[in-house]
Amino acid sequence: MTYLFIADLHLSPEHPRLIRGFLALLDKYQDQHTQLYILGDWFNAWIGDDNPAPWLNEIVTALEKFHQQGNQIYFLVGNRDFALGQKFLDQFHGILLSDIHHIQVNKQRIRLEHGDGLCTDDVSYQRFKKIIRNPILLRLLKATPLSFRQKLANGFRKKSQQANQVKSYSVMDVNQHAVIEALKEVDLLIHGHTHRPNIHDVEGKPRIVLGDWRENSAQVLVIHDTKSDWQLSEFKY
Q1: Sorting pLDDT into bands at 50, 70 and 90, what band is 137?
Q2: For a Cys-Cys bond, which of 44, 92, 110, 160 suits 63, CB 3.0-4.6 Å?
Q3: Cα separation of 25 and 32, whole Å?
Q4: 30 near 71, Cβ under 8 Å?
Q5: pTM surpassing 0.85?
Q6: Which residues contact 4 (CB under 8 A, 6 or more apart)?
Q7: Among 17, 138, 55, 37, which Cα is nearest to 94's?
């Protein structure tokens, strides 16, 4: 079995190359009995599962084919697509995971998350996340008209871009203490969000940061259940 981990694709109709890359990834791994884990920010923005976006049809069709080949798709939300729910995933038998999810591969306990929860030095973002991700508020937002949600998402994205321009890289990166805490009960931590692909040694335990998707390539993580190692590699498309 192949375990494939990706994050931060930021798919949108404005960037067809990224969509082509994702479809190419599905095609490459469809015959490998693959467990695909998408660790947040799959889409650049998501205003609700009830949004009739025709550009998604090709993606849904490819994912359904991927599943029919004996593969499985798992997803946990990121800061851009936290409104994505099980209703969308049901179209191709995908499974929505909790914000922090644990799996075991080759006797290794692995913690999966998007990564924004580790950026505790970014106090303003953590405060905003706590408010916007409140289940009651999220249900109310999903009940509003699509046009309102679209304007709201555009406003949030614009404010986020403006705020990030004045924040230091250290503030937007993970907090070392938060990382140590996250690794306490596991052997390996895998996340995305920071767009800084790398493998870090944290007190003898690896922290693997997945890469964001670019116009021609992406950094993905592949683990095989027949091997004891793992590989962060470049996928070109």
Answers
A1: confident
A2: 92
A3: 12
A4: yes
A5: yes
A6: 25, 29, 34, 35, 36, 37, 220, 221, 222
A7: 37
